[in-house]
Amino acid sequence: MSATEHAVEMTRVAAEAALGKLGEDLVAFDVSEQLAIADVFLIVSGHNERQVGAIVDAIQDALIDRGEKVLRREGQGGNHWVLLDYGDLVVHVFRTDDRANYALERLWRDCPEIPLPQETPTAREQN
Fold it and tell me: By residue range, what is the domain housing residue 51?
C-alpha cells in the first residue's frame, strides 16, 4: 500500500505554500506502510521563529483554500517545531537548528520519498 493520490496532492500544495515563504530542505516520506495514522510526513525548515510561523500560516491557508481542515496543530507557542495534522498528511515545520537536533529524516529514511518541487512556481517561471 502507498500514499493515496489525495495525500500526495495535499503534500504538493503544502510544499508549494512552504516554498512561497522560502521554506527550505523540503522532504516528504510515504509512511503509509509503517503507520496507520497518516500517509505522508512533510518536513520543512525555516531560519527563525517568524519564518516558521509564516510557513505554517501559508500551508494552512493553501490547504483551507482546497477545503482541507487541520485536525490538530501543536507547537505554535515558540515556533521552533510546529506540527500540522491533516489526517492523511502530517506537516512538521522546524526552525533549522531544531530540525537538525530531532533528525526526523533519520527515523523515516527507509520510507519512500515523494518527489517535491524545490523552488516556488514564480522562481521557476523566471528561469
Answer: 5-122
Domain count, the chain: 1
Q: What is the largest CA-CA distance in the chain?
A: 41
Q: Tell me the C-alpha to C-alpha distance, in Å, between residue 40 and each of 50, 106, 108, 124, 125.
A: 25, 15, 11, 25, 28
Q: What CATH number is given to the structural domain containing 79? A: 3.30.460.10
Which pTM was predicted?
A: 0.90
Which set of grid coordinates corresponds to residue 72? Answer: 490538530
Cα 108 from Cα 106, distance rounded (Å): 6
Q: Which of 96, 86, 105 lies closest to 22, judged by CA?
A: 96
Residue 127 is assigned to a structural domain of this protein: no
pLDDT digits (tens, 9 = 90+) for 63-122: 999 999 999 999 967 889 999 999 999 999 999 999 999 989 999 999 999 999 876 555
How do residues 46-61 score in pLDDT, each as one tens digit?
999 999 999 999 999 9
